[in-house]
Write a structure and sequence with these properties.
Helix content is 2%, strand content 45%. The protein is an all-beta fold. Strands 1, 3, 4, 6, 11, 12, 13 and 15 form an 8-stranded antiparallel sheet that branches. A 7-stranded antiparallel sheet has the order 2-5-14-7-8-9-10, with no helix packed on it. The chain is globular and about 75 Å long. The two termini are 12 Å apart. The relative contact order is 0.24.
Length: 224
């Protein structure tokens, strides 16, 4: 908590309490999380416990660039997944904004966004707000654990930056440098805590690979 004195004109009188009450800055209202993976996967920050079967998550230097690579492998039902190790870190009332840099090497079974920490990847109607890539298309998805709203928004590109923004009334989805949302969803908004999660799942027996080189989260707290 930072406090600053009030600014007064020459000869203008002030009050002692203005030293405490004016220009109050509370840095906990906007909390920024960022990971660019330059030093690889920090085991104190990331958990891969939902990786199953032949799936794997590892550092890969490919195309002259360092990525975290999620490779589902070719075994049917396998998943490569990573989530914040601390568990759920935000809630819709935080008005969070999440950003993901994604290289979709394959485009049949990928998902990334803000989701419930304990729910298995690719679970139907899972709680969260996230992007889903399947059959070469990108979808915006919002689910409350019982139902979900899914909107097709684009043809999947090899590389893009994806944004998810909670407002007081809906969840907005942005792709690339678009200044306006490609989808706004006001139904089935989750009321439970969420975390950052990224997953790739085997499609039939075809490996699905997702690479990422940064993720970020801002929590614009509603109750400052």
């Amino acid at each position: 908590m930072l406090r600053h004195k009030a600014i007064k004109k020459v000869l203008e009188k002030g009050k002692a309490e203005e030293w405490n009450d004016d220009h109050t800055i509370d840095p906990s209202n906007i909390i920024l999380f960022w990971d660019d993976f330059i030093e690889g996967i920090n085991p104190n920050r990331w958990d891969t416990g939902q990786t199953t079967g032949s799936g794997d998550v590892y550092v890969a230097f490919e195309d002259n660039h360092m990525f975290i690579k999620l490779d589902s492998g070719t075994t049917s039902g396998s998943v490569a997944s990573m989530r914040l190790k601390v568990g759920n870190v935000t809630h819709k009332d935080d008005l969070p904004i999440a950003v993901f840099s994604v290289n979709a090497v394959n485009k049949d079974k990928l998902e990334f966004g803000l989701m419930d920490w304990g729910t298995d990847p690719f679970t139907a109607n899972q709680s969260g707000a996230y992007f889903r890539i399947k059959a070469g298309k990108v979808y915006a998805v919002v689910g409350n654990g019982s139902n979900e709203t899914e909107i097709e928004i684009a043809t999947a590109q090899d590389y893009n930056v994806y944004w998810i923004k909670f407002t007081s009334t809906n969840v907005q989805f942005y792709v690339g440098d678009r200044s306006s949302p490609v989808a706004s969803i006001d139904t089935n908004i989750p009321g439970n805590p969420l975390t950052i999660k990224i997953s790739a799942g085997t499609y039939d027996t075809t490996a699905q690979v997702l690479r990422t080189d940064f993720v970020g989260l801002i929590r614009n707290r509603k109750n400052a």
